[in-house]
Amino acid sequence: MRPHVEMIHEDDYIWHAAELPGGEGRASERRLSADEEDGSGSLRLDFHTDWGRGPGIHHANTEYYVLDGSMTYGGRRIGKGGYLYLPKGVPADAVTFAEGTRILHYREYGDAGFDPMQSLAAPRWEGAREDVIVIDSEAMRWDAVPNAGPMPGLFIKYLHVDPVTGFYTRLVHAQEGWADHRLAHHPCYEEAYTVQGHMEYNFGTLDLGTYFFRPARVKHGHFTTMEGGATWLLRSDGELHNWYTENEWVRWGGEAINYGPEGGRMRWSQSAHDLGRGPSRRTEQDLEMLRASLAYAREQGAVDTDVHPHGQGTDKSLIAIAKAVDAARLQGGHGDHDHPHDHSHDHEEGHAHGAPALDWGADPATLEHPDERTDTGAHDRGHGRAWKSGDPIPAPIISSLPVRSRSRGYWDGEGL
């Protein structure tokens, strides 16, 4: 599994010698995120000299995207925006990168292994089913996203879509002023590297060189695109379905038994609302964009509620607790009453004294994928699973303290 990484700027990573077996030349890599169980990884590479290697077979689905410089595959040279997809187990032609080139490099479902071959006539691995893709994305046109959310202004370029799993890689651009006031979670993971622009949301600032890897079902949102718009290379390991939440809150706490005042016992709690206090991370321009997003959604007939970022207004967790107490009393709980009461009567008469079952809504376990607790991803709550219409829609999970950048990341609870 990969950790939840939210808003780390690449400058906050250290450089390693690039793991590119069988090649000639010098390169360094920054490891944006990695899965140490299956070898998958997302990397930022710099080539310090011309670099290349001959034909061969990769041990993972492999992708290269040129940020600056040039890449040559099978004799075809592509500059900035060049994209290359080399499926696992499929013979690939020679590839070279010019000195000074900067790229994004992805490995999926395998490690950095590479088997050199004499020619492309080498046999495929059993089960290999896709073909090599070579694209100059700079020459592609932007297409409007069919379901752009609550307002127009979102555009896409598809680079690779797996017809079986739905895994896809794409470039996404949000125009300046595009916003989405809703909070979403998905059945698949989502990761992105910012190649241009500036966007703000609950986990931090998306600007040039920032990266996130968000496991399936992690709640996130309240996006606002700032000056110049924003563009990302974005990947998901399945079809992206959006499930939205509003009026979100969370409260957690407990009793300290050896770290209260003077080492004594102390009860403490914190809510998502508390994390939003202090100087607001939402500028007036930011809030105005969120309100515009809400207004447009309503114009289109959507049923929606007002946007109230955490730290403003009444703490929703306190409202929920008050409602739960009221429900307990209405459901027969023995709250405040002053009539004489004999507790010696026979409980078989139907007068139950147990605490009433409070209605907190659906049990999240009832919303899970049918095989979730027994399949190969049962060890990982953020493991993505294929979803189709009619399947249970899983509840979101909370990743309250994701790995985040010392220079770009923050967390104020809005994504819960």
UniProtKB/TrEMBL annotation:
InterPro entries (alphabetical): DUF4437, RmlC-like_jellyroll, RmlC_Cupin_sf
Pfam families per record: DUF4437 (PF14499)
Signal sequence region: none
Domain of life: Bacteria
Bias-annotated ranges (Basic and acidic residues): 334-352, 366-383
Positions of the UniProt region annotated as Disordered: 331-400
Protein name, per record: DUF4437 domain-containing protein
Species: Streptosporangium amethystogenes subsp. fukuiense
